[in-house]
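Ticket #631: bound-state structure for WT7.
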Amino acid sequence: MRIRTFDDYQQAYQQSVEDPEAFWAGVAQEFQWRKPWTKTLQWNFTEPNIKWFVGGKLNITENCLDRHLAERGDQPAIIWEPNDPHEAGVTLTYRMLHDQVCRMANVLKRNGVGKGDRVCVYMPMVPELAIAVLACARIGAIHSVVFGGFSAQSIADRINDAQCRLVITADGAYRGNKEIPLKSVVDDALIGCPSVEKVIVMTRTRTPVAMLKGRDVWMEQELKQVTADCPAEEMDAEDVLFILYTSGSTGKPKGVVHTCGGYMVYAAYTFENVFQYEPGQVHFCTADIGWITGHSYIVYGPLACGATSLLFEGVPTYPDAGRFWDIVDKHQVNILYTAPTAIRSLMGFGLDKVENHDLSSLKVLGSVGEPINAEAWHWYDDHIGKNRCPIVDTWWQTETGGMLISPIAGVTKTKPTYATLPLPGVQPMLVDENGQEIEGNGVSGNLCMKFPWPGILRTTWGDHERCRQTYFSTYPGLYFTGDGCLRDEDGYYRITGRVDDVLNVSGHRIGTAEVENAINMHTGVVESAVVGYPHDIKGQGIYAYVIADAMPSDHDADLTKRDILATVSRVIGPIAKPDKIQFVSGLPKTRSGKIMRRILRKIAEGDTSNLGDTTTLLDPAVVDEIKAGAV
Ligand code: WT7
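RESOLUTION: The complex was predicted; output attached.
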């Protein structure tokens, strides 16, 4: 299972392509199965129907917890660093984590949750969040974690889509110098969620909260009612482990479904190999557990490998921009996994925030979530890794469960801005618009996968047709990633960004259609079009063109913009707020009514010299007006 040299990588890769079933069976054997699988893989990309380790029985928490007790029960599983550096943190050993997960699992059972039920988790980055997730997995309940920055409306949409029976939340969350009233947001959401019977509330901020009789219970009190004895539910390899909602180019976010066996094997395999994790090392992934990065590389991957995972509640700039470096120093972090947007923002604060910290414990640096520009890559390499830590630029998606294209630390020769080579089991293919394969090197195209890996999504919750449409229909027989990609002369892959109407803002995935729908909900707005533009820190910023009932005067425009931002915050969450809003009298549409986003993108980028062919537009004059009014 463990790759140590480039030769090992090549051999593993070759075997994974020639005999994928034997390859993944070999990897999966290292885990604890209640019952072995009878067939390693069954698949087609047309329905699609993908099953790994068919007939195998397991529980992922036995692999993440019980399995480690004998050998490393007293080793830290989770190190928690609170938002406030002066507050005492928490270290949970594997034994303690096992105990707490079992107790929380019993609390869930006491509150009517059983195998297959959906549980929404809306929590701060505290150990109880990881515990809640694992407690669900322990009893076979399906978790749907919603990032703490989403609005009540977004929570309600997700709860209703999955028909969640229970919500786990906290009174509030600390994020930097802000306090977010989580329970109150949940209360707003639940006005429209009839499926929810119970809410478990943890105390964190001591913000006053309303507690509805019969519905809301305190986590602390519930925990007093249970024992730490909770045998794990036996799960089929293809039983659903979790749902995680993510944005696409159309409609509301969809619930990406991952299952127990394949996801576990893939998260663990990629964690151990890409980061070259050694026993005893401290791994610090700065993502929130509300995103797939947190699921795979804070919780499941590290714990399945018996690693020590650091969980940080706060933000990189609180109390100052040296916080990450402070944490690395304090906890002697060996692996740091963060996003380019964080690196770019910290770069701006200067080196004195870095230099007063001891970063010599670092061995491997990781990047994820968006393309990393050369400047950020070199800053990370020079000033954080001191040119002695390999950087792994890991490309993957919510749908892929784990990394697909990435260097293996210290094994794969890196190249700034390149995710480099596919991991074992991953078979990328570049295609042109017609779905023709683009062979050879020194080429670029749309990135697809031609063969399944164990962590691939199985469906989108409640709507399998949407899964087929979105990922498997653009290029029949292939999984389409939505990303553009370049393969250079060495066969190295560089992801160039989304080719669909999906934005990547500070590593957060946001659909333009979603933002448009939110803007259009504002009174007085007739129509809108949203595009991305390059942003120095966020990677992409959000630019909205808005048609109002009447073109607002300068004074009114400012007020209306403010109200539009408030509307977007309310409907989606603050992360989706446009950076720029321009009022326009019309949008460039073709005669068939399609908005020509290409033109809007160019104008938003500030590049109006060559807008390409505009002759098919219904009203070409509107382009000049938009150009003149660009903000
Ligand atoms: C999209 C997936 C995977 C965890 C976090 C994001 C972009 C992700 C990279 C990278 C260039 C990247 C892609 C992808 N992306 N990692 N290393 N280099 N682009 O997960 O929210 O599902 O977003 O993020 O565009 O499609 P996600």
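RESOLUTION NOTES: Residues 246, 292-293, 367-371, 393-398, 419, 481-483, 495, 497-498, 504, 509 surround WT7 (CB under 6 Å).
TICKET STATUS: resolved
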